[in-house]
């Protein structure tokens, strides 16, 4: 499709744009023009790109090395005639595949959500007549009429406007509606500064306009975002990458040991058939059958815990990924800030007043406010009455109907004790002078009563008020010559704080005046005061940023707002912003600066910059990729359509549940139900706990597989019968994983979990210390199981009893080792026995199962076990307690030096 590549519509005069499309704005396109343009450009809709079919997504769940091992184990056990055990293993594989498929299917709707955002209707001029058509029928060159409340149906170059304001927050991140004009703009104007354009999916909040369609469908800005979402990489999470790497190592280790076992036996003169069965037994023993199920259960536990803290996980691995995040890139509006404009300072009567309280409820106070301060009270009154917005107070919160800036003025007046209904009755409105971008002010005319001059209030830009005012109101109600220098100095001070400053004015008109026009505002205005407002940071977000810094996680703010506002919020949040002499935004990178950087320059500078302002959607995506190129694990938060590509590209995308668009939610891995940045801190804490518990399970379960493999290998090398059979190995692996290992999923988070640096994503899942622990416990199992097996065999001469002793050694040592594994650094006695009662319950259930394995007749037939006496049990318990003591001694020796807490 021809998207008029290279056309900078904002940099072309409107008449040139109309000539390009050969259209008269008063007549519009005719029928034949519409037909051939529809054929050439297609419908005004986003292309739905082919994704994986349901069958493909399901089959890909089996495309993992660990799953290959499990499938092989299932086939081998089936070949051995153990149908039940084979069914259990294959069942584990199927459950994991189904869970993975369901989670992935939930994430397949990002493009559909974007396409839905384009479904609307449009009012167009065609063949000289005004008509309403489906937005999908629009073609380049169509003349579209926009009114308040309309959703913009395509990308438009505005050719005529009247007081137009557009909410572009979903596309650009701009926190307040943007005033539009038809003026020619510089070639390098970024998306958020293109005031002569209206973009598809944005919302008209005020005024009306006429525009010519310049882009439709995939060629629109939202279409470009759709393309970026579809092309963004589906990244494997750090956990899945590590599990995959670990599984590859495990696969080759198992094959090598099985081959060694077979070769060693044959070289000793044993029968090849017997050695093949021994190799199969070793392979079955070395496979951690319970690992996939354990990973799923532990992640699911994390999902449940996070949900209770306001974070809904859409993809299971995201639970752990968030715990490993090293950088969090956050949208500003509504996430780090309240998303509620708040007046924080008032300058009136030549005095400054701080205003406390945030949000749209009139809770707070005005410093130094008294009813006798006429300048301050009248400034509040002007903001209250020269206002077309209202606030509805509902059970679930506040709803602003109108402009958030005007809502802030209503709330500020409420903090001064002024009530809108009462003041409106005392000063009823007679006429309104709407805000127009060319004049930069709004006015209202009020009746003060019989035989009294009419009173007009004005609010607008500082320049608009100062140019028309000659006097200013003082606190005692008297007038004095206007001090321009003092006011401009105050405006500069407030501006450096990133605040939006409005000026208030008034004048009296003849008592018979019934209307208001711009001629009434040319001069002789009385300056009342300034109101400074900002969307303030959430107090809990400030604390969360501090907690992240303690945890070694960098926080970066990415916003569509201007650099000065971004710098002010960054400074309040503690993002490392420091005001430089004469240049408060020196540590803020703007979108225009980013556009001039090469990828290498951006990668180098991204890590050292904490605040990014006026950033376009593709730049958010580029920034995330630059950080990932540095090896960072990136979490990205956002709520707008413009955030969707970056949310999908990030290692974990976090969308806002209340204020977020569907496109952002569908592209994310996690949704915050309260739109609160502090919830991310809670989720990171839970994620770190999940990873700790996963690691504890792995370090607990692998020694059993190592021990089983070593026992089989030792038996082959020594030329003796196998101490444990394949079916007994399966019993050990599956029952202990379910009854013992999974209890670690309920292990509470250890103290100091947020006082350590995030894991290095390049490090393997196990380090050298943990490998030593695994080999130590595996070696203890080899010695204990093989030793007691031979002892029992020499004492009784009964093979079944000796194997029963060996199986019980494995189970009992694992059961005691479970208490060792509750922490890598702390004693189980320091943790407390009942801080995780599930471990105690699992221990009890496992003991009952082992008694059944040993003494129930049909279990003896099924697993080749046999009853044993009291003395063997005392030996088994004795070696288990000894192993527990040795492991605790190793833990104590390893942690004697002061070290960073691992878990």
TrEMBL record:
Pfam families: Cation_ATPase, Cation_ATPase_C, Cation_ATPase_N, E1-E2_ATPase, Hydrolase_3. SUPFAM superfamilies: Calcium ATPase, transduction domain A, Calcium ATPase, transmembrane domain M, HAD-like, Metal cation-transporting ATPase, ATP-binding domain N. Keywords: ATP-binding, Membrane, Nucleotide-binding, Translocase, Transmembrane, Transmembrane helix. Residues 8-82 form the Cation-transporting P-type ATPase N-terminal domain. The keyword S-adenosyl-L-methionine does not apply. Belongs to the cation transport ATPase (P-type) (TC 3.A.3) family. Type IIA subfamily. It is a multi-pass membrane protein. Signal peptide: none annotated. It is found in: Membrane. It comes from the Bacteria. This is Magnesium-transporting ATPase (P-type). NCBIfam families: ATPase_P-type. The chain crosses the membrane at residues 58-80, 86-102, 249-269, 275-300, 697-722, 728-746, 770-789, 801-819, 831-858, 870-889.
């Amino acid at each position: 499709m021809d998207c008029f590549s290279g056309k900078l519509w904002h940099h072309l005069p409107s008449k040139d744009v109309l000539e390009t499309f050969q259209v008269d704005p008063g007549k519009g396109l005719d029928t034949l023009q519409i037909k051939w343009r529809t054929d050439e450009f297609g419908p005004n809709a986003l292309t739905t790109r082919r994704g994986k079919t349901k069958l493909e997504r399901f089959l890909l769940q089996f495309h993992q090395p660990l799953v290959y091992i499990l499938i092989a184990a299932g086939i081998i056990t089936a070949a051995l005639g153990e149908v039940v055990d084979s069914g259990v293993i294959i069942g584990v594989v199927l459950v994991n595949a189904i869970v993975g498929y369901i989670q992935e299917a939930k994430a397949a709707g990002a493009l559909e959500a974007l396409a839905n955002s384009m479904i609307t209707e449009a009012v167009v001029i065609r063949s000289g007549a005004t008509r309403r058509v489906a937005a999908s029928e629009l073609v380049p060159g169509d003349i579209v009429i926009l009114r308040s409340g309309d959703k913009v149906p395509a990308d438009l170059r505005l050719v005529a406007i009247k007081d137009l304001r557009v909410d572009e927050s979903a596309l650009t991140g701009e926190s307040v509606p943007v005033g539009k004009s038809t003026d020619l703009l510089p070639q390098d104007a970024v998306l958020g500064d293109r005031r002569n354009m209206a973009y598809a999916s944005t919302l008209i909040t005020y005024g009306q306009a006429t525009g010519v369609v310049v882009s439709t469908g995939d060629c629109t800005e939202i279409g470009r975002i759709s393309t970026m979402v579809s092309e963004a990489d589906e990244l494997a999470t750090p956990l899945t990458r590590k599990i995959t790497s670990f599984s590859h190592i495990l696969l080759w280790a198992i094959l090598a040991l099985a081959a060694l076992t077979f070769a060693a036996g044959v070289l000793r003169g044993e029968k090849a058939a017997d050695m093949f069965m021994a190799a199969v037994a070793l392979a079955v023993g070395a496979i951690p059958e319970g690992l996939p199920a354990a990973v799923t259960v532990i992640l699911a536990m994390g999902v449940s815990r996070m949900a209770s803290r306001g974070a809904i996980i859409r993809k299971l691995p995201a639970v752990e990924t968030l715990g490993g995040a090293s950088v969090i890139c956050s949208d500003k509006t509504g996430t780090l800030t309240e998303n509620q404009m708040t007046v924080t300072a008032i300058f009136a009567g030549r005095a400054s007043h701080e205003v406390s309280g945030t949000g749209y409820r009139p809770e707070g106070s005005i410093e130094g406010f008294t009813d006798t301060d006429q300048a301050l009270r009248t400034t509040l009154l002007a903001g209250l009455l020269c206002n077309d917005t209202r606030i509805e107070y509902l059970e679930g919160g506040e709803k602003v109907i109108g402009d958030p800036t005007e809502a802030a003025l209503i709330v500020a007046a409420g903090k001064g004790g002024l009530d809108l209904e009462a003041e409106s009755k005392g000063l009823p409105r007679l006429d309104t002078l709407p805000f127009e971008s060319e004049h930069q002010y709004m006015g209202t005319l009020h009746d003060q009563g019989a035989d009294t001059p009419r009173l007009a209030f004005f609010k607008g830009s500082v320049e608009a008020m100062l140019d028309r005012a000659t006097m200013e109101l003082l606190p005692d109600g008297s007038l004095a010559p206007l001090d321009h220098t003092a006011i401009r100095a105050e405006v500069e001070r407030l501006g450096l704080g990133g605040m939006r400053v409005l000026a208030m004015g008034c004048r009296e008109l003849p008592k018979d005046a019934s209307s208001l026009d711009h001629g009434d505002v040319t001069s002789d205005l009385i300056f009342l005061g300034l109101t400074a407002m900002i969307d303030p940071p959430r107090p809990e977000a400030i604390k969360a940023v501090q907690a992240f810094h303690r945890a070694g996680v960098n926080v970066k703010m990415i916003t569509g707002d201007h650099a000065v506002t971004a710098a002010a919020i960054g400074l309040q949040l503690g993002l490392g912003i420091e005001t430089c002499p004469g240049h408060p935004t020196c540590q803020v990178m703007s979108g225009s600066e980013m556009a001039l950087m090469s990828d290498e320059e951006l990668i180098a500078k991204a890590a050292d910059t904490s605040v990014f302002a006026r950033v376009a959607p593709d730049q958010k995506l580029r920034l995330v990729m630059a950080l990932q190129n540095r090896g960072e694990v990136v979490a990205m938060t956002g709520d707008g359509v413009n955030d969707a590509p970056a949310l999908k590209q990030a290692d974990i995308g976090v969308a806002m549940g209340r204020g977020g668009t569907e496109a952002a939610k569908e592209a994310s891995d996690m949704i915050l139900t309260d739109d609160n940045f502090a919830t991310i801190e809670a989720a990171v804490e839970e994620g770190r706990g999940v990873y700790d518990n996963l690691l504890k399970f792995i370090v607990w379960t692998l020694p059993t597989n190592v021990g089983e493999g070593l026992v089989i290998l030792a038996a082959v090398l020594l030329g003796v019968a196998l101490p444990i059979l394949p079916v007994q190995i399966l019993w050990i692996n599956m029952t202990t994983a379910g009854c013992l290992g999974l209890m670690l999923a309920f292990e509470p988070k250890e103290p100091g979990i947020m006082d350590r640096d995030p894991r290095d994503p390049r490090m393997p899942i196990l380090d050298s210390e943990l490998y030593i622990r695994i080999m130590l416990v595996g070696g203890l199992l080899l010695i204990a199981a093989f030793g007691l097996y031979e002892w029992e065999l020499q004492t009784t001469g009964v093979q079944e009893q000796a194997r029963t002793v060996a199986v019980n050694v494995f189970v009992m040592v694992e059961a005691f080792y479970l208490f060792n594994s509750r922490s890598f650094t702390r004693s189980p006695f320091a943790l407390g026995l009942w801080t995780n009662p599930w471990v105690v319950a699992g221990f009890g259930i496992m003991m009952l199962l082992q008694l059944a394995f040993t003494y129930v007749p049909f279990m003896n037939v099924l697993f080749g076990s046999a009853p044993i006496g009291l003395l063997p049990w005392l030996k088994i318990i004795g070696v288990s307690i000894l192993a527990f003591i040795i492991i605790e001694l190793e833990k104590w020796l390893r942690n004697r030096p002061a070290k960073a807490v691992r878990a």
